[in-house]
Design goal:
alpha+beta, Histidine triad nucleotide-binding protein, catalytic activity, HIT-like_sf
Length: 111
């Protein structure tokens, strides 16, 4: 299930280039083009869900897998320490309405 107009669906389908960090059958991760930390990776499910609440309701196993992928990336990039952020809704800063977790790591992070 994908949305042909969605930016992240297009990235997953290689219609738009990205700097891939990780991929498997259900998940794709790539570097953010506007990083907020030394390491800033977006972890997205291949299936289109608008936000983390929709994903949690529709496929909680996939949400858990996204967290596992975030940990794997943090283990490789910075001794396992990371911040995982999901923005839900425009007022909360979500600009692409395909659920994605921001993995921030690579340096000590302020609160």
């Amino acid at each position: 299930m994908q949305d042909s107009e969605c930016l992240f669906c297009k990235i997953i389908n290689c219609e738009i280039p990205s700097e891939k960090v990780y991929e498997d059958a259900t998940t794709y991760a790539f570097k953010d083009i506007n990083p907020k930390a030394k390491v800033h990776v977006l972890v997205v499910p291949r299936d289109h869900y608008a936000n983390v609440g929709e994903l949690a309701k529709g496929n909680p196993t996939l949400l858990a897998h996204m967290v596992e992928v975030a940990q794997l990336i943090a283990n490789r990039e910075y001794d396992g320490a990371y911040r995982l952020i999901f923005n839900t809704g425009q007022e909360a800063g979500q600009t692409v309405f395909h659920v994605h977790g921001h993995v921030l790591t690579g340096e000590p992070l302020d609160e």
